[in-house]
């Protein structure tokens, strides 16, 4: 087998082709960066436990820089969440469930606020903008508050969906039971029911 044929087999291998297709998307790159970031955190911990501080420092720096890079890829995400909030507010499917609509819109707005303030914190951390330390701390706190409220509203939204879906599942059963109950009561009175 020639070198070019071997190189062609490696370069055109289906696993590599699938990996490149995934990495061609922002989401694929983000998941890859996250996996490497979490591995770097884990490996730095292992190295610190063994006493190798220099190597652990390199892996910790890699983890930190990948975290900053991942934040760069999220710069347009607040606009996606604002669009999702607008779509949820205009949703015909959610028109009957006002609480579910409210929580869906609030969750998306909270995530947009979180990502906006997180971008400000990121821009300050890479020295693109210069905030005084109290303002930077305030922006971080606001960001984390938006994040927490977004998660809480999202959990409440999920709870509402579960309750609505269960109610939807039991309505046909209860109406059938009501119909059967009427038929049984009519039969016991001596009148002819549906049977």
Summarize the structure in words.
Helix 3 runs antiparallel to helix 4, helix 5 packs antiparallel against helix 6 and helix 6 packs antiparallel against helix 7. The termini are far apart. The chain is extended and about 65 Å long. About 8% of the residues have low confidence. 83% of the residues lie in helices and 0% in strands. The chain has 195 residues and is an all-alpha fold.
Share of residues in strands: under 5%
Tally of separate helices: 7
Q: Fraction of residues in helices?
A: over 70%
Unreliable stretches covering 5 or more consecutive residues: 170-185
Radius of gyration: 28 Å
> Helices and strands: which structural class?
mainly alpha
What's the rounded overall pLDDT mean? 81
Tell how many strands the DSSP assignment holds. 0
Helix/strand order:
HHHHHHH
Largest sheet: none
Shape: extended
Instruction: Kindly report how far apart the N and C termini lie.
Output: 81 Å
Quick tags:
195 residues; mainly alpha; 83% helix; 0% strand
Q: What layout of secondary structure does this protein have?
A:
Layout: H1 3-11, H2 14-23, H3 26-50, H4 53-73, H5 77-89, H6 98-125, H7 133-188
Offer a quick outline of the entry:
This protein has 195 residues and is mostly helical.
């Amino acid at each position: 087998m020639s070198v070019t044929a071997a190189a062609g087999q490696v370069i055109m291998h289906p696993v590599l082709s699938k990996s490149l297709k995934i990495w061609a998307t922002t989401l694929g790159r983000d998941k890859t960066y996250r996996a490497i970031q979490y591995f770097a955190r884990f490996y730095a911990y292992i190295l610190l436990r063994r006493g190798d501080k220099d190597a652990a420092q390199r892996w910790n720096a890699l983890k930190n820089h990948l975290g900053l890079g991942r934040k760069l890829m999220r710069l347009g995400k607040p606009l996606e969440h604002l669009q999702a909030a607008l779509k949820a507010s205009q949703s015909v499917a959610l028109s009957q469930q006002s609480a579910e609509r409210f929580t869906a819109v609030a969750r998306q707005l909270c995530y947009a606020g979180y990502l906006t303030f997180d971008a400000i914190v990121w821009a300050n951390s890479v020295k693109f903008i210069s905030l005084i330390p109290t303002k930077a701390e305030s922006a971080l706190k606001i960001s984390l508050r938006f994040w927490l409220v977004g998660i809480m509203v999202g959990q409440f939204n999920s709870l509402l969906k579960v309750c609505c879906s269960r109610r939807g599942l039991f309505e046909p059963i209860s109406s059938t039971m009501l119909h059967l109950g009427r038929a049984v009561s009519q039969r016991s009175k001596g009148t002819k029911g549906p049977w």
